[in-house]
Amino acid sequence: MRTRKLLRSIGAVITVALFLAAWCVPAVAATPRVYVMKGKITAVDVPDHTVVINVPLGKKEVFTVAGPLAPDATLKKGAEKDVTLKDFHKGEWVTVKWRHTDSGHLILSLAGK
Q1: Which CATH number fits domain 34-112: 2.40.50.320, 1.20.1070.10, 3.40.225.10, 2.130.10.10?
Q2: Are the C-beta atoms of 95 and 38 separated by less than 8 Å?
Q3: For residue 107, which of 97, 86, 52 has the smallest C-alpha distance?
Q4: Collapsing DSSP states into helix, strand and coil, what is residue 86?
Q5: What single DSSP character describes residue 80?
Q6: Using 50, 70 and 90 to split pLDDT, how confident is the model at 113?
Q7: What would the pLDDT profile of 39-59 be if each residue is shown by its tens digit?
Q8: pLDDT confidence of residue 24
């Protein structure tokens, strides 16, 4: 009799725990990961608000971050905070903050010297 009640209690706790775990997983998966990398600008397209940055991963490997600026992207150079994409040029080293989207990379911020 006591064993049966104990098993029911354990079963109820496990059921609630599984329900909560299943409910929380989609919320965690929906949060996009944000990456921060340093690289060299290889292209800037001011009219389309896009930029291409090659990030060195080793002596021979390069990762390319390419995509549009987010509508609320932060752009800064040195102490200047109010800059535009026109102020960034090919060959310039920058720190880029970006995330994946369904259509590719989305640039969240660019910071140069």
Answers
A1: 2.40.50.320
A2: yes
A3: 97
A4: helix
A5: B
A6: confident
A7: 999 999 999 999 999 999 988
A8: 47
